[in-house]
Amino acid sequence: MPAHITKWKTEHANYRKLLDLLETRTELFARGEQPDYELMSDVVYYLTQYPDRFHHPREDVAFGTLLAYDPSARDVVDELAGQHRQIEASGATLAADLAAAAAGTMMSRATIIDDVCRYVAFLRDHMDKEEREIFPRLGAALQKKDWFLVDSAIHLSADPLFGDTVQARFRGIQRQIADQAGCGCADLTEKACCLE
Fold it and tell me: Does 182 score more than 70 pLDDT?
């Protein structure tokens, strides 16, 4: 399996941890507990700033490259590229709703809960479809030169949460993930959690 596919699967696993955290916080909120809008906003901010700006565009380049080798992949490539745009739009809506709620705007619990549930379910289904239907085709078709072009097309920025150094804004998320997993990394301040 090419290193790029392995990396993308690892990134998907990290995104699932964030979706689990978002879902857990939303379940508490649905039971009437005080929402942690800051934590939820930070999770959504990360998902709209890192995957939407770096992960998905790199996948789109690889998917487009695949079509030269496997034109029969056109339908799934078009569907997944369209889903990337939907994920970005629904993430922006969710981020705006959470920011408004945190600022004190009157908003029903049901609106936020529905937004989170839709976003989480859609992103999970999307990643599952990529891993099931397109990653094997990419692994079989793309050559070293193709992966070089994927790397060259989108400048990659360091991951601010799951990279070597966790940005200050994301340390709370890291601690929450570590707490949920019971991995013992909850007190780290500079290094990334061992869960990566």
Answer: no
